[in-house]
Fold these 2 entries.
Entry 1:
Amino acid sequence: MTYDEFNQFCEALISTTHVVQWGGSHVWKVGGKVFAIGGWADDRPAYTFKTSDLSFEILKEQDGLRPAPYLASRGFKWIQNYALPGLNDEDLKTYIIRSHELVASGLSKKKQRELGLLN
């Protein structure tokens, strides 16, 4: 997945915003909270996302994936897809969607309603 494809995918998720920060990384937020980051790798695109506790334990052991620099060291369950083989594009998209859901579910019910996240 290229950064352009990553940005198009994240933009299509409900109530997202995009900023470029932290050294030129593509940072995607829902309700002002980060759910995905494109950047922070030297030789190829890298993508960082929030996971459940179980997914974190499974993914951190796979080749091309690691606990996300800075975030995981602070106890947060974030994974970075940074090298081959890593995740294929479809699996990466699934984890980004789940990250969006995890972050959105942590927002107040009022904020979720304002953003159209509740039915």
Entry 2:
Amino acid sequence: MQQLNPKAVWLFFVSLVLRAFIPIIFLSIYIAATLSDIGEVLDNGGEFSFGFLNWLWVIIPAFLVLCFIWAKLKYHFYRYELTDAGFRKELGVIYKKYVTIPYDRIQNVDIYRGILARMLGLSDLNIQTAGMSATVGRYGMSGGGSEGRLPALSREVAEQLRDELIQRARQSKNQGL
């Protein structure tokens, strides 16, 4: 099985930090204020003291280290391959997820390059399948993402993989005729 581009670690790291940064800041302020004595937070004059913000110098680096470790683990356990039966990927650090998409179910293969991915020279490959990619129901769109998303591929690998998947999907659909 093949792994993603090694730069995927940085993509995973930055996305984790951006997704959790605001809640972590508020949580760290709450924890620091709770750990410090209430009398230290408010001076006798009723003015606000910023002494509890010293805890941020401990919490933020610890958070960044944990995010980087998690990004490395996520990269290590994210693998994919093209088999005779279909496209196969496995991912997950704590809970493993195994996805196999038969070639005859592939409807479309798109390449997406977000701003962070472009800065790192990476691309996302989205494999859309029949009935799974975008189900529009009574209450709007559900399952809006593609079933076979591969993040953090190099541009060349993403284009090669897209072409190979489209070719195999055509071949599998033509064999039934």
